[in-house]
Design a protein that fits this description.
Strand order of the largest sheet of chain B: 5-9-4-1-2-3-10
Number of strands of chain B: 16
Bound molecules: flavin-adenine dinucleotide, adenosine monophosphate
Largest interface: A-B, 82 and 89 residues
Largest sheet of chain B: 7 strands, parallel
Shape of chain A: globular
Order of helices and strands of chain B: EHEHEHEHEEEEEEEEHEHEHEHEH
Strand order of the largest sheet of chain A: 9-13-8-1-6-7-14
Number of helices of chain B: 9
Oligomer: heterodimer
Number of strands of chain A: 16
Shape of chain B: elongated
Structural class of chain A: alpha/beta
Largest sheet of chain A: 7 strands, parallel
Structural class of chain B: alpha/beta
Helix content of chain A: 25-40%
Radius of gyration of chain B: 23 Å
Number of helices of chain A: 6
Distance between the termini of chain B: 68 Å
Chain lengths: 269, 333
C-alpha cells in the first residue's frame, strides 16, 4: 500500500496575530500544531499500514516551520516527509492548494494507492481541499469518512451524511478525507517526537521541483480574494452576576426573565 | 452564451428536506441579491421524483427552474451531479451559484468549483452585493473567532456554500409561478466510480442538539455524574437539549451524542446555559452562533465567562439546582 497523507500546520493559539493589510495570518508569530483532522487521517493511514503493510508519505505545504508537523508525523509512524515551501506558494486558496498538493503527489508518489486528507482544517475550515484534489487527480473519492475496511483493492467506507448512514465502496487508487470522530490518534510520547527530530531528512521541494505551473499556485493562482478579516462584532452584554446561587438566579430572572421567557415560550417575569 | 439574462442560481438540495431547508433559505436570499443586480433567481434540480421540489421552490419564490429528471439521478451521485452542474453552468453562465453547506453540499460544491476553475467561499454566514456588483461572502475562520469577507470576481460563476439556518425563507405561496426548463440528461456523463452500497436514515436520536432553541451545556465543573444529571431536569423545564464537553463525555457523564465542539456538534441555540465550562477553543468553536449565553463558573476569568452575555460567578451545581427551583416556582404562578 502506498499511502499519502496531507497534513497542515495550523496555529494553536486563540489570540491570532493578523496582518490587517493583507488579511492573512502572520504565521511566524503563532505557535503551530498539526491540524486535528490531519492527525486522524494519519492515524487511519498508520492503521492501514499495520494491517496491510506499505509506506506512508506525509506531505505538507507551508512555511519552513511546517517541518515540525512532518517530524511529528514521522514520530507517529510515517515513513517519509515532504515539505512544499516557497514564497510563491503563499496565499493559496483551496483551488491553488489542491493543485499544488496534486502536483507534488504526482512527483513524489505517482503510484499511490490511497491519499488521505483531513476532512477540514481548524484555521480556514473550508472542507474543500480534499474534494478538489479528487478532481485534480481524477480519482474516485469520498469525504468525511469515519470507518473503513480494505479488501484487496476495494475500500469500503462508512460515514454519516445529512442524517443518513452511508456505506460506500470504491476501487483504489482513490482519495478520502477523514473525520475527527473515529481513528483517534495514538499517543506518541514526547521522546518519540523528539527522536523523530533527529531521524532522517525532510525533503524540501519548491515550485520547479514539483513541476507546478507558476500561474496556478499561490495568491496569483487563487481566484478568491480576502477583502477583510475581522472579529465578529461582540454584541455581548457582558453582565457579571456574583453572590449565592439563589441570589444569582433571582437577579438573572429580574434582568432577563422576559428574554428567557420569550425563548422558551413561558411567562417567567 | 445561450442566455442573455442575468441569473443567480441555487442548487436544489432536497435530501433530508424536513430537517434542512437551506435551499429555500438560499432562494430567499438569492432573490434579494438578484433584485440588486437585475438578475433572475433560478433553482437547479436533479433527480427523479422531483416534481414536489420543483413545486416547492416555485412557491418559495424561484423565478425559473432548470430541471434534469432521470431515473439514474434518483440518488445523489456526486461525480455525475458535479459533471452535470458544471455543464449547465458553462452553458447558461449564471453570475452566482449558491449551494447549501450540508454534508453533501460541502463535498459537492468544491468539486463543481474545481471543474469550473471558480473561487468558492466556504460555509458562509453572510452574502451581499457590493458597489462593483461583486458577491461578497462572509466566511468564518478559526471556529468563528474571525470572519473574512471574500470575493472572487474574476472567475465565473461566483460561488459560495452557505450554512443552513443563516437566512430566512420566503413563506410558501401557492399563487407564485416559475418558468420551468427541462433539460435532457446528456448521454456522455462520466461513470460514477463510488458505489453506494446502502444508505439508511439514521433514526432520530434522543439529542437533537443542532437544532435546539435552548441548550444546557455542562462541563467538568459540574463535579460529578450525579450532579451532571440534574442538568437533565433543568433542560426539561426549559424545553432544552443537554450538551457536554469532552471531559464529561470521556468520564461517561453523558453520551458522545451530546458532545459539543470540534469533535462533536455545532449548536446555534437562541439561549445557551453553560455550566462549569472553561471555554477551550475546541468547544467554543461550536457555540459561536448562540444568540444569548449565560455562563456559570467559579472562575470569573474563564474564557467562557468572557464570551457570555451573563456571567454568573458561583458554583455550577448550586446554580443549576436554584434554577430548577425558581423555574418550578415561576411556572406555577
Ligand atoms: C483535537 C481535540 C479536539 C477536541 N474536541 C473537543 C470537543 O469537540 N468538545 C469539547 O468540549 N472539547 C474538545 N476538546 C477538549 C478541549 O480542549 C477542552 O479540554 C474541553 O473543552 C474542556 O472541557 P471543560 O470546560 O468541561 O473542562 P475544564 O477545562 O476542566 O474546565 C472546567 C471549568 O469548570 C470550572 N469549575 C470547576 N469547578 C466548578 C464549580 N464547582 N462550579 C462552577 N465552575 C466550576 C473551572 O473554573 C473551569 O473553568 C478537544 C481537544 C482536542 C485536542
Ligand atoms: N497547506 C496544506 N498542506 C497539506 N495539506 C493541506 C494543506 N491545506 C489543506 N490540506 C489538506 O486538506 C484538508 C482540508 O483542509 P481545508 O479544505 O482547508 O479545510 C486538511 O486536513 C489537509 O489534509
Amino acid at each position: 500500500m502506498k499511502l499519502v497523507v496531507c497534513v497542515k500546520q495550523v496555529p494553536m493559539v486563540s489570540e491570532l496575530p493578523w496582518d490587517a493589510k493583507t488579511g492573512t495570518l502572520k504565521r511566524e508569530h503563532a505557535e503551530g500544531m498539526m491540524n486535528p483532522a490531519c492527525k486522524h487521517a494519519l492515524e487511519a493511514a498508520i492503521r492501514i499500514k499495520e494491517k496491510h503493510g506499505g509506506d506512508i508519505t506525509v506531505l505538507s505545504m507551508g512555511p519552513s516551520q511546517a517541518e515540525e508537523v512532518l517530524r511529528e508525523a514521522l514520530g507517529m509512524g510515517a515513513d517519509r516527509g515532504v515539505l512544499l515551501t516557497s514564497r510563491r506558494m503563499a496565499g493559496a486558496d483551496t483551488l491553488a492548494t489542491s493543485y499544488t498538493l496534486a502536483c507534488a503527489v504526482r512527483k513524489v508518489c505517482p503510484d499511490f494507492d490511497l491519499i488521505l486528507c483531513g476532512a477540514h482544517t481548524s484555521d480556514s475550515e473550508t472542507w474543500q481541499v480534499g474534494p478538489q484534489m479528487m478532481e485534480e487527480l481524477d480519482v474516485p473519492g469520498v469525504a468525511c469518512v469515519e470507518e473503513f475496511e480494505l479488501n484487496c483493492n476495494i475500500l469500503r467506507m462508512k460515514r454519516e451524511s445529512d442524517d443518513f448512514l452511508e456505506t460506500l465502496e470504491m476501487e483504489l487508487p482513490g482519495l478520502i478525507t477523514v473525520s475527527t470522530r473515529h481513528n483517534i490518534p495514538r499517543y506518541v510520547s514526547f521522546a518519540g517526537v523528539e527522536n523523530a527530530f533527529d531521524e532522517g531528512q525532510i525533503e524540501v521541494l519548491d515550485v520547479e521541483a514539483i513541476g507546478a505551473d507558476p500561474a496556478r499556485i499561490g495568491i496569483g493562482g487563487s481566484p478568491t480574494k480576502i477583502l477583510s478579516v475581522y472579529s465578529p462584532t461582540a454584541e455581548k452584554k457582558g453582565v457579571l452576576i456574583k453572590g449565592s446561587a439563589k441570589k444569582a438566579v433571582e437577579e438573572l430572572f429580574d434582568k432577563f426573565g422576559d428574554l428567557l421567557g420569550g425563548v422558551i415560550g413561558k411567562d417567567l417575569a | 452564451m445561450t442566455n442573455n439574462r442575468r441569473e443567480i442560481w441555487v442548487f436544489g438540495d432536497y435530501r433530508n428536506y424536513f430537517q434542512n431547508r437551506v435551499t429555500l433559505q438560499l432562494i430567499a436570499k438569492g432573490k434579494e441579491l438578484a433584485a440588486q443586480t437585475g438578475a433572475d433567481l433560478c433553482a437547479v434540480v436533479f433527480g427523479n421524483d422531483i416534481d414536489e421540489w420543483v413545486w416547492e421552490y416555485t412557491c418559495h419564490g424561484a423565478d425559473r427552474i432548470y430541471i434534469v429528471k432521470d431515473e439514474s439521478l434518483a440518488q445523489y451521485k456526486i461525480e455525475i451531479y458535479a459533471a452535470l452542474l458544471e455543464r449547465l453552468a458553462r452553458e447558461y453562465e449564471p453570475d452566482i451559484l449558491l449551494i447549501g453547506a450540508t454534508a453533501f453540499g460541502k463535498e459537492f460544491a468544491p468539486r463543481v468549483a474545481k471543474r469550473l476553475g471558480a473561487g468558492l467561499s466556504a460555509d458562509c454566514i453572510g452574502l451581499k452585493i457590493d458597489k462593483e456588483e461583486r458577491l461578497v461572502a462572509t466566511a468564518p475562520a478559526f471556529g468563528g473567532n474571525l470572519l473574512a469577507d471574500i470575493v472572487a470576481p474574476d472567475s465565473k460563476p461566483q460561488m459560495a456554500t452557505v450554512r443552513p439556518g443563516t437566512f430566512k425563507e420566503i413563506p410558501h405561496n401557492d399563487n407564485l409561478d416559475s418558468e420551468k426548463i427541462y433539460i435532457p440528461l446528456p448521454d456522455d456523463l462520466p461513470e460514477e466510480r463510488v458505489r453506494l452500497i446502502s444508505s439508511e436514515k439514521i433514526p432520530e436520536r434522543g439529542v437533537k442538539l443542532e437544532n435546539a432553541r435552548v441548550v444546557v451545556c455542562g462541563g467538568r465543573g459540574m463535579g460529578s455524574k450525579r450532579k451532571f444529571r440534574n442538568l437533565n431536569e433543568l433542560a426539561k423545564l426549559l424545553g432544552a437539549e443537554v450538551g457536554a464537553t469532552r471531559p464529561v463525555v470521556y468520564s461517561n457523564w453523558a453520551s458522545h451524542d451530546a458532545l459539543v465542539g470540534q469533535a462533536g456538534k455545532n449548536i446555534r441555540p437562541q439561549a445557551l446555559f453553560s455550566f462549569g465550562i472553561s471555554g477551550a477553543i475546541q468547544h467554543t468553536a461550536a457555540i459561536t452562533d448562540a444568540d444569548f449565553i449565560i455562563a456559570v463558573n467559579k472562575n470569573p476569568n474563564a474564557t467562557m465567562m468572557k464570551m457570555a452575555d451573563v456571567a454568573i460567578v458561583a458554583d455550577a451545581g448550586q446554580v443549576c439546582n436554584a434554577l430548577i427551583k425558581e423555574l418550578k416556582k415561576r411556572a406555577k404562578d
